[in-house]
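User: What would this chain look like folded?
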Amino acid sequence: MLLDFEQLSSATIWALIAAGCGPVGEGDQAPAFLTVDKNAIVIGPEDDAKMLEVSNTGGQTATFTVEVAATAAGTDWLTVEPASGVVTGGGSKTLLVMTKNREKLPPGTYHGEIKITQEGGGSETVDVSMTAGQPVLFVEPSDTLDFGDSEASVTLLLKNTGSGALT
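Assistant: Here's the prediction, encoded as structure tokens.
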């Protein structure tokens, strides 16, 4: 069977090579190709971090860098570790997507973006949304403090039962 390689996509050619059906020399491998396991991440008010898996579906090793674009009210609120890495052919690497400076933001939902760029190749973009919570002051006892005739002190409990910073 003869194949007209000019009529085939590069993905099809590499699939044929990987399957041993093409004119290749020993040791040839499909090029690195990075993918991510999700295209969106939601970080709720109780979450500090989420994981993102970067996989290399090709045969060669891939090097990547991570860019984060997530600024609100003059505050950077998102970070990713590691900020760069190497994934061997057929392998994967877990990235930790974390909030930072959340307490400096007013309550609300914020949107950002993570861009993973493969050296010498394409890129993957992941949308990120994060909710900064509202603080809630809990006071106990909630009514009046009764020192009576003989007590010099009474215990008062102040607690933040919300998810935002209480200042």
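Residues 1-30 form one domain. If you want, I can go into more detail on any region.
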